[in-house]
Design goal:
The complex is a heterotrimer of chains A (253), B (329) and C (668).
Chain A lengths: L1 E5 L2 E3 L21 E3 L1 H17 L2 E7 L4 H11 L3 E6 L7 H15 L3 E5 L10 H9 L3 E11 L2 E7 L5 E7 L2 E5 L11 H10 L2 E5 L13 E4 L7 E2 L4 H15 L3
Parallel strand pairs in A: 1-4, 1-6, 4-5, 5-11, 6-10, 7-10
Antiparallel strand pairs in A: 2-3, 7-8, 8-9
Helix pairs in contact in A: 2-5, 3-4
Chain B lengths: L4 E4 L2 E2 L2 E2 L1 H17 L3 E7 L4 H4 L8 E2 L3 E6 L8 H15 L3 E5 L8 H8 L3 E8 L4 E6 L4 E6 L5 E5 L10 E2 L4 E5 L9 E7 L13 E5 L9 H11 L2 E4 L1 H5 L20 E5 L5 H4 L7 E5 L7 H4 L2 E3 L3 H15 L3
Parallel strand pairs in B: 1-4, 1-7, 4-6, 6-13, 7-11, 8-11, 15-16, 15-17, 17-18, 18-19
Antiparallel strand pairs in B: 2-3, 5-12, 8-9, 9-10
Helix pairs in contact in B: 3-4, 5-9
Chain C lengths: L3 H34 L9 H13 L8 H29 L16 H28 L9 H27 L10 H8 L6 H25 L7 H10 L29 H9 L5 H5 L1 H4 L6 H20 L5 H8 L9 H5 L6 H5 L7 H14 L4 H13 L22 E2 L7 E4 L2 H5 L4 H13 L4 E3 L9 H6 L2 H16 L5 E4 L2 H9 L11 E3 H10 L12 E4 L13 H9 L3 E2 L30 H10 L6 E4 L2 H13 L7 E4 H8 L1
Parallel strand pairs in C: 1-3, 2-3, 2-4, 4-5, 6-7, 6-8, 8-9
Classes of the chains: A alpha/beta (253), B alpha/beta (329), C mainly alpha (668).
Chain lengths: 253, 329, 668
Amino acid sequence: MNIVVLVKLVPDLVEELTIDTSGVALDTAWLRLIINEFDDHAIEQGILLKEGGGGVVTVVAPDIEGVDDVLFTAAAKGADRLIKIKGDFAGVNNHALARAFSAVVKELQPDLVLTGVQANNDLDGSVGPLLAGCLEMPYVGYISGVSLSEGKSKIRKEYPGGLIAEMDVTLPAVLGIQAAEQPPRYVAVSKVRQMMKTSTIEERTASGLDMAGGPTISRMFQTEAGQRATMLTGSPDEVATKLVGIFKELGVL
Amino acid sequence: MNQDIYVVIEHLRGQVAEISFVMLAGAHELAKGLGGNVVAVLLGHKAQALAGNPSAGAGQYLAADKVLSLDHPALADFTSDAYQKVLTDLISKDQPRAVLFGSTSIGTDLASTLSIKLGLPMVSSCRSFSTDGKFISQICGGKIMAEGDLPGPTALVTMVPGGYKAEQGQSAQSPAVTEIEVPALESLRVTLASYIEPESGDVDIAKEPLLVSVGRGIQNQDNIVLAEELAQALGGAVSGSRPVIDQGWLATSRLVGKSGKSVKPKVYLAMGISGAPEHVEGITNSDTIIAINTDPAAPIFGVAKYGSEIDLFDLIEILTEKVKQSKGG
Amino acid sequence: MMTYDVIKSILVLLALLVAGGIFLGRVYQLLWANLRLGQRSSPFKQWGERIKGVVVYVAGQFRLFRVLIPGTGHFFIFWGFLILSLTILQAIVEGLVSFVNPHFVLPLIGSFGPLALIQDLFAVLVIVAVIYALVVRLFVNPKRYLGSHKSQGVMVLMFIFTIMLSLLVMNGIRINLGQDPLHVWRPISTAVGRIFFGAAAGTQEVIKEIAYWTHLCVVLIFLTELPEGKHFHVVTSVPAVLLRNLEPHGRLPAATDLSGQVGVSTIEQFRWRQMLDFYTCTECGRCQDVCPAYASGLPLSPKLLMMELRDNLKERGAALRAHTSNSTAQAAQGRTLVGDVISDSVLWACTTCFACDQECPLFIEHISPIVDMRRFLVIEGRVGTELQDALANLGRYGNSFGQSERMRARWTQPIQPPIKDARREPVEYLWFVGDYASYSPTLTDVTVKTAEVFRKAGLDFGILYDAERNAGNDVRRVGEEGLFEMLVEKNSMALGKCTYQAIVTTDPHTYNTLKNEYPVNEDEHRPVLHYAELLDQLITAGKLKFSKKLGYKVTYHDPCYLGRYNGVYDAPRRVIEATGCELVEMPRHNDGSFCCGAGGGRIWMAEGEIQERPSESRIREAVKLGKVTTFVVACPKDVTMFRDAVKTTGNESRLEVKDLIELVHAAL
């Protein structure tokens, strides 16, 4: 099984997010970029499939700050090939990223492409279904289970309320992973460091980044607190007393 | 080319999803400025009844100027390949001003791929529109908003709930239904095998009057019992956000949010929950939300009525004690 | 002519050869063949210190007296063994040369009267000690013996008893028959001899020979049994104490270079010095008695761990030497050390409090193999989800709370004037604040008070602000050596850019690793101090004066990483005294202090199936003291753990937990 996993780096929401002087983009000064959590699950799912049925897992990512660490960590988990796409990805939208990915995916000719079902900074759709459009492959998202057989895959798709649909998807296909069948495994720092010495990251160059299809942002701003909650302060004892009072007012006590 | 706003109605096993009504409300807002019609697009098999007589009682018809019904056995249940083929055909023929999809397991399987195949621009995570034709989307866990002009010639938009109430997309009158011819649907690459029902669980949190809900802040499984004690004292049940269910600390039946249940208790006590949009989606119908979180910037405080920055571990046992005392225990 | 004496000599020789051969064969297999499988151990130096240790701890049996009466008993058995070994030598030589001279007596030793008296007295003392020990083994059955091999213990006690008794009988009859020129020096033997006084000379000779053969045979059987099981410590105890680890307690050895593999997964990946420890375990259970994990109901017992490692070493050694067709050998090969023999949960239960290593009379290191095996678990990813999250946060943000580095110094915001930034200007004391003191919302006020106290004392201090990272003490003990190295790099780089005279920290874990494991600045010696040490220094120098005497009745909990690991017991007590509080000691204090349960990364893990939290047991211990109102700690994690425990044990009205700095702050 030839499996390709596409990975994006996104803003770390732990940090405070501010808008830069242009007013239409995030300020990158204090921005930390980390692997998209759902892409991390996609890597895990890819490795699980390889461990279960053999094959090769290739992880592809755009060349942004922090990408090397992400790729070497994937290698430490069991990924076989690492590819980074060089280009100026600052401010680039998912349409452009998907097109850049599709050139590489075409070269790799995989049976299956896995990527996270969404990312926290998606404004023009998600990479997975966009890529599927570029490559004319079928796409199913919100996947929480994948099993493979010759030419086909059986997937579990999540709906609200815990309902799950089991579907058959012909390969090659693109799947948008919601959750891997087990949480992403831990990789010791020393293993990642070892990978840095023993693995290589192949490079490809994006031949121009075509952003057509994405919207034009005229204004970006921090969400207003709106009607902010009435904050209760004091010692735990005082807050608890106030809450009991509120419960009584609302008629639940 | 017209100024109509098409809304791809989402339905699952005979029920129209609430997002469909939210989208219709949004469509109406847009249509006010553009002057076109709001057209509900209903793909399915013998699903026309959904337009005329949806699940729960009067006053809940699709608030659309008209309904386009595309009926085919292969569309009976949602599958991305079949729905894509039908919509590709429809959109390229009709060329509406915008097509709205839910930012859901159904809508997101369709919108982006159609954007590439049809060469049409798309916007995702849209929360609301303005009458002067602007979209307002939310990203980065709900912390950042992005605004822009609705792109043309046909904008494909995925919508998230929160900007409109479902009632705004419902009408007392049933709209007219027109049957549209469906192209041939053969050699589909995605087919439905079966549905797997969710675990029924002991408690239906959607019916509980009070929920003590825990998020990552609960830290580990051993601490869940503290929430259970509080819930018991208050006469409610325990629910949780996605990280808690993913870790296996609570059963899937207790999940609140986009992939879980929508709940409508009198009081929703969110402890150690940050308030990411996927979770907030499930609690907007609560009467009163009370949030406990040590991070003053947590988005949950934007939807809660009362809040406190106190550490939930400092509070929870004292609160349980006081609740018991006030009950005369 | 084949007289009895000739036969005796031949039989003694044969018995000696057989028993000796078995003994040496077993010793060879265990100490040479098996230990050769092990990894290299670092070369040993400081021989003066080492030899002194053998004198104090082996000859002096020093640590044994920590459990007083059994310790005293063992002291006599040990010394009896040494002193009476000469009588065994006498018996063997006498037997060997009996064909020439049936009444041979060793020169010098055999004719020295006072020695004979000492031997006689010790024979009685040994018998008394042995009877006491048998009573303990058979009837008292203390908890520390749970899991130990009772039958082995009883058997050996019976052996010793028999050896002593048969000696006295032999001696006694010799005295009766007038064959002992030193008879005045053997009052006990004489008394035993009286029992047989009435019998005919011939009968007595027979009884004497029976006693002799009993004596010799039991000695030789004991000799062959010595390498099996816990009595091997008789052979290994001197080398174990001689070659004990003289590094500071708080310095974990680096991971052994196993050509690519990290951590230990099979027994032969341990260093041979560690293997020697596994053999030396006497199954006394003193470590088990002081282990907080064991006391709380978790599956870890340091004693049982050593026993399992020892058994596995023997099994594996034998299996590797056996033919591959041997099915038991194959079965032994099939079981993994880490996983099958020793389960993951046993390894994760350890808080690394050092109570076991402190208590062990033979300086066995229990924590070192645990960390070695944890290193393997971490590499394999066999880490619980909570710990995984903590490690991921530590790797990404440098703290286990998952908060941005920029939030580390948020607690300083209300302080005016602002605390000096050590990255920008030179300071005298660089205050390494630590994760818990910086990020935990409940501890912020203690940290602020610390700053106020430092200010009032006129200290020139500064902090690293956002450049500080978790010092890595517990990351290392969890087995994430790579992450530890990364944290050391980052912190060392930040420290390297600063100008300071000393480092002071409020967290004993931080203190331990900064002091013992961080690369030392070679040009100048810049001490690492815990704030208790610093406050003590300031008080002694008169730079910190108190305006009032608090007068509280307090008890003090020695933090593991300040007390046992680094020997700082008195400084905090002097500080408490200086604030005018009255200190009442808990039974488990100083190096017997009972861990709060948070160390070794346990604070980042799920609790597991616990019967009684160590912190709760400790609070109950404090409450039992009666009049004490304040529980004083000197570690931020202790504050958290014990405040919780006070709540969960319902003692909020009786006991208040305060950090030492809070007392100082109140008394200023």
